[in-house]
Design the sequence.
């Protein structure tokens, strides 16, 4: 096969970094430098930790735990409310920079992209220098750091960007696998969750290198044939999946989360879905869209996908409606099996603002819509006053400008 070249670009502690850029513009502390979390309600100290800074991690604070528990671990913890509409702007701004380097970019999540740099040698003869250029440009123009993984395929690029953080470029070429990847604990192999790692442990497999050398027949004692082949290939750095040139939001809006610890109870699944609902709804609102169809996807430990979707009577852009619908879909279709991936998708997008009037109008809908709108406008005003206060062009200003320019581009293309 042709030699490929893939970059994986991953924002370092994305939500914390993006909130830090937002707060810095308002004269707040740099959330990245202090023990801080994003998520929940800063006043009541309720809710769930959506993200944590590196200093907060040192106190043993983990994503997904209650804010009250995090505060017990670190009494002077700084708590920032999440602002998904702002995160969407940051995400779009960073992806717009990445997109300049190749025609083939895959948006993998709100803070990760894959770039297919294969055959770009004429324009960018030195891939490592190009990786540094992208990383430094994002920091200079937008004020937050990324890691870049440079490799011959998506799996290895993703593994490489996960090496030492933040603000680093790492390579992981085939010949580097024994030295850089094989000594790592098997749980660090992408898609190897806690329960898979435990199963491997029962075969005395602790490192990725040991997994790579284990015969398939042995792996089939603990995994399905498909699962065994998957882990055998991954441990050996084999991944033929293409970088899909997917324009974000071409058909709809979706988010997928591959979890580190398999999801085994409804509450943890719903926490992931809630975060996704916030993100996808904010992305859709940023484009002035409303969806008529909501779907959930999940993948079990044998890599079998299951999807379930529903068509709404009327289109919506309200986070709460989207979340509650997704919750019902999960309740109907999930039967308690451990999950490694959960996804939420919004499709059948209505962009002209036309809304059918239903005879069965949800009485709370207008209230909820008003809530979303007022939150958005408070955020908008908050951001604008911050921009006015800053004497020089700051990074949050640049993010807003770049976001507006992207929106303009989109309108022209449509
Ligand atoms: Mg990240």
Sequence:
């Amino acid at each position: 096969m042709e030699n490929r070249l893939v970059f994986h670009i991953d924002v370092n502690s994305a939500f914390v970094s993006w909130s830090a850029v937002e707060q810095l513009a308002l004269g707040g502390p740099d959330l990245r430098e202090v023990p801080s979390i994003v998520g929940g309600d800063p006043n009541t100290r309720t809710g769930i930790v959506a993200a944590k800074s590196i200093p907060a991690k040192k106190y043993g604070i983990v994503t997904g735990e209650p804010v009250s528990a995090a505060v017990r671990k670190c009494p002077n913890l700084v708590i920032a409310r999440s602002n998904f509409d702002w995160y969407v702007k940051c995400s779009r701004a960073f992806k717009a920079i990445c997109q300049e380097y190749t025609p083939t970019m895959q948006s993998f999540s709100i803070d990760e992209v894959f770039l297919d740099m294969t055959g770009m040698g004429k324009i960018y003869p030195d891939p490592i220098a190009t990786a540094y250029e992208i990383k430094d440009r994002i920091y200079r123009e937008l004020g937050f750091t990324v890691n870049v993984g440079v490799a011959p395929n998506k799996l290895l690029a993703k593994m490489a960007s996960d090496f030492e953080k933040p603000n680093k470029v790492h390579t992981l070429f085939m010949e580097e696998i024994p030295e850089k990847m094989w000594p790592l604990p098997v749980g660090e192999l992408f898609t190897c969750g806690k329960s898979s790692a435990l199963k491997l442990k029962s075969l005395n497999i602790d490192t990725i290198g040991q997994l790579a050398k284990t015969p398939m027949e042995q792996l089939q004692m603990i995994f399905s044939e498909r699962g065994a082949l998957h882990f055998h290939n991954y441990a050996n750095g084999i991944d033929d999946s293409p970088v899909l040139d997917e324009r974000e939001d071409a058909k709809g809006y979706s988010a997928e989360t591959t979890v580190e610890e398999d999801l085994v109870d409804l509450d943890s699944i719903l926490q992931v879905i809630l975060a996704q609902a916030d993100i996808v709804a904010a992305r859709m609102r940023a484009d002035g869209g409303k969806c008529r169809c909501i779907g959930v996807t999940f993948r079990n430990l044998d890599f079998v996908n299951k999807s379930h979707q529903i068509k709404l009577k009327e289109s919506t852009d309200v986070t709460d409606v989207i979340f509650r619908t997704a919750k019902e879909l999960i309740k109907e279709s999930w039967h308690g099996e451990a999950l490694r991936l959960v996804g939420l998708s919004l499709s059948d997008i209505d962009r002209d603002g036309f809304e059918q009037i239903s005879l069965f109008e949800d009485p709370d809908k207008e209230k909820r819509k008003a809530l979303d709108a007022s939150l958005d406008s408070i955020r908008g005003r908050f951001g604008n006053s911050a921009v006015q206060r800053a004497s020089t062009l700051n990074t949050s200003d640049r993010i807003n400008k770049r976001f507006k320019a992207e929106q303009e581009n989109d309108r022209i293309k449509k």
